[in-house]
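ingest -> validate -> predict -> emit
validate: passed (alphabet ok, no gaps, 285 aa)
predict: started
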Amino acid sequence: MHIIKDFIITGSNDKPITTDIFFSTYAGKRPVVIFAHGFNGFKDWGNFDLIAKRFAESGFTFLKFNFSHNGTVPGHPEEFLDLNAFGNNNYSKQLFDLQKVTDHLFDTRNSYHSLLDLNNIFLIGHSMGGGIAIIYAATDHRIKKLITWAAISECKTPWGSFNAEQMKEWEDTGVQYYYNGRTKQQMPLYYQLYEDYQEHREKLNIEAAVKSLQIPVLICHGTIDMAVPVEKAYDLMKWQPAAELFTVESDHVFGRMHPWPEDKLPAATDAVLNESIRFLRSGQL
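emit:
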């Protein structure tokens, strides 16, 4: 297996998108899976290399990346060292980054271009990244199949739970803080996140985006997800009845944690992986 870790694609505001790509050694062009992480996430969360290897072993090229403003930096892809970037992240920047990642696959200068089946580019997004993936897939005809893992159904992460007083304080001070219980950091959320949403509400409408999709869609969700309740998956299904739904009795991250010390994935993650690979293999491959 070939693994290229931590190479850089230039993203929003010329900030780096740290990227990994995994592919097997057999000859021939391979369909491509792009994975977009969620809020407060990163490409290596929970030993995600195990998942990447599984896709590669199943005949796919698998590309995962850190959004340019997720707070990590090159050389430290698992640590939130750039909190200013984190605070300045927003949905529009993530959509821009995802386009740059997709464009990279078509760049003939990359060393593995000849091994890519560019007629079969698939997209997976988790949580907030699932919402981004839905919106992006609705606008880029190069995406041929879409999978969501525990996806949001509206672009209001994380302020959807703020009350009126918190919203007013956020506007007045320009910042709210999200406490990361794992790292013990106070993560800034600048008011520009909400302003970006207000300015681009039509573009950031997940309901409209998922209704417009003309490609196969698989929606995966844990039935005991406390972060994004499974009802959000039912919303997506209501808006896109042609989609497939797969549920598993598990949480928001399908039983994983960070760091993940084992070489074996939990049963719930394994089930979601098996279903995702089945879905991607069906029909076209």
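The chain has a mean pLDDT of 96.
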